[in-house]
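Q: Got a minute? One more chain.
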Amino acid sequence: MRLSVVSGGLAIAQAVGQAVGQAVGLSLVLLQGAAEAAEKQQILVTDIAGREAKLSVPVERMLLGEGRQLYLVASLAPEDPLERIAAWRDDLKQADPATYRQYLKVFPKLDALPAFKGQENSLIDIEGAVIQKPDVVLLNLEAMRANEDADYIAKLTALGIPVLYIDFRHEPLKNTEPSIRLLGKIMGEEARAEEIIAFRGKAMARVTDVLDKARPDRPKVFIERIGGYTEDCCLTFGNENFGKYVELAGGQNIGTEFLPGTFGQINPEQVIVSNPDHVVVTSANWEAYVPGGRWIPLGPGADMNKAAEKLAWFTSRPAYSGITAQTTGAFHGIWHQFYNSPYEFVAVQQFAKWFHPDLFQDLDPDETFAEYHRKFLPIDYQPGYSVSLRGE
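A: Always. Here it is, folded:
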């Protein structure tokens, strides 16, 4: 009988111990959940379009309305940018295949990232967005009209999925740094965002400070936009994007005189009459879009001999017949994606070296971009972003 009592007492003690253990375990789980909730906070932010949105930060699942937004996400979270991405548009693989391969090598799971198709100014895949349950959807500014006309933004907002607009393309000199700050804030990387902004400012100042002091004559420059992507002539930039880069680098952008906006087209006769001192072709490896086209395969690791060969063809275009740039060989090619990334300071430095070589003998845009990679990106730098028939 006494043994039974003892046995019963042990059973009771074990049961009590188990219950206490479970209670402690539950408490720990609750405490952990409370701690995680405390780490997150709801904030109100204003995007590049001036829209307000409320969201919990730091965000952990972003849906990228364009794959090239990875350029900034990776700069802010280089350890593993894919941890922050729920899904993305699949344009990076087609528009910038060399960079895609660089990231795929470092982050093999990139190939399995949920993706949807579409163009820069097109609708997002709203069903795919809902399925992925993102904390936020990031859209480029030029997609604003299409998505709002389709009432997509209201639908996502009603489902508790905030939408933010950023911009590297429409007015990059005005909107890139606010876009960097916005992502820094929602990702909990505000200090790093300021470091990136400071780096950009210093890189730009290495050009503008010299020009402000020297005040050289401004050569006339024609930018041929997306050279080789289409046979059309003459697509160019107005007073924004690459057009603005030309002005910052001490040149006179021909397109600014004729186009009121960022993008447009002028006729070949006008180019000839304007008689540019330099022609700069923006191009890239667009085999996915225009197989075997006349595009110049610029980008990380590009074959410079092949790039120079393909650039040489542009000197024979009727629009450049007899112009000063044709006589002097001042034809240059530059990576088109500088128009849609936080890296435009590299293009400004390169333009300055082409337009004013005597003033910028010591400036090395390749080293500037290499330093940016070392400081902010998880991939190694590979040259190949520019080419010139005048040599470097």
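A: Residues 332 and 391 are 9 Å apart (CA to CA).
Q: Perfect, thanks.
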